[in-house]
Amino acid sequence: MDQSHPIAPEHADNLINEPDQRNDETIDQEHIEREGFSLWERLRNPRTLISFGIALAIVVFVFRGLNINPEQTWEHIQNANLWWLLVGFLVFYCTFPLRAIRWRILLVNAHVPVYAGRKTWSSLPALIEYIYLSWFANCIVPAKLGDAYRGYLLKHNGQVSFSSTFGTIFAERLLDMLGLFGILVLSAAITFGDHLPDGTQIVFGFGALLVVMIIAGLTSMRLFSPLIHKMIPMRLHGMYERFEQAALRSFRPVILPQLIFFTTLVWLLEGFRLFFVIKALEAEGLSLPLSAIIFVALASSLLTALPITPAGLGVVEGTITVVLAFFAVPTDLGVAVTLLDRLINFWSIVVFGFVVYLFSKRR
Question: Which residues pair with 116 in a beta bridge?
């Protein structure tokens, strides 16, 4: 699973200054410093409840339309090899340290203070914790608010600018989208050649649109900065300038090879997570080429960018099941793959993320 689509930068600081977003009212910064960013207020927000209702409706609609046999699906799940599932779980969780290393490179590049004396707020374990808590937030609230939450955690614990921090997160998301879409296209070319199955064009169109939007945003910051400053309210100038500088500084040419390496490795591991889930069901007669598995994994990760439901809940489940059908995987077996994969990259984050949130000193 990926969570690759960031919140619009021009609204980033407002997001953390609006704990409940009722009537889009702006809460002053002093209130935020005093009250903080409450995930539980977000979770109780009617918009969150509606998003979960939409996710449930999508799941019911897709699964009813596919005429799934729950008993047969459960039998496949029971026959899964637990050792291969454990390997898939470990592979998935290896991505968090890699993401933290990459984020630290971006923070250093953007001149956002990473070390403050003997404090450990920005140590690698701390950055891993911030990222994991942000994924937890994305799994329980819609609209990718986990990105804003991560920026606020670093601001609150490290006493650094939220706008600058969010600029590095925006740069990170650009890398993720370029890496994900590039590997997705390559895996599709290897798997399908020139004959894409009907329906996959929607996935590629959505991915291409996101890539164009993010690159256009970054290019606009570089080329049209004076014009943008004239268009935004005066009170946002300082916040936007810090965001812009951090986002642009993140891509110094000297460290691009490192960023490309870590981004590619992260998305390959995302593909291998699904590979080991499918390996766990090999005894059920399931076998797919690696390129096809990577295509399925990244196509589902791409759709987590939709801000309609938390972490693409419902949309991703339907996508994996339907895309597996392109490869003649029986529907009941495809649903078993979907549920086991989401057990790793969604429900494990909900459960373990809740534990981390309860005991974290940095929340």
Answer: 119
In a domain, 2, yes or no: no
Task: Give percent of the chain above pLDDT 70.
Answer: 82
Cβ 95 vs Cβ 269: under 8 Å: yes
In total, how many domains does the chain have?
A: 1
Q: What's the whole-model pTM score?
A: 0.82
Residue 248, domain member (yes or no): yes
What range does the domain containing 135 cover? 9-20+29-359
- d(C-alpha 101, C-alpha 355), whole Å: 23
- Rounded CA separation 128/132 (Å): 6
Structure tokens at 157: 């614990």
Three-state SS string over 148-206 comes to HHHHHHHHHHHCCCHHHHHHHHHHHHHHHHHHHHHHHHHHHHHHHCCCCCCCHHHHHHH
For residues 274-280, average pLDDT = 94
Largest CA distance in the chain: 63
Residue 1 lies in a domain: no
Sign, CA dihedral 185-189-195-196, equals negative
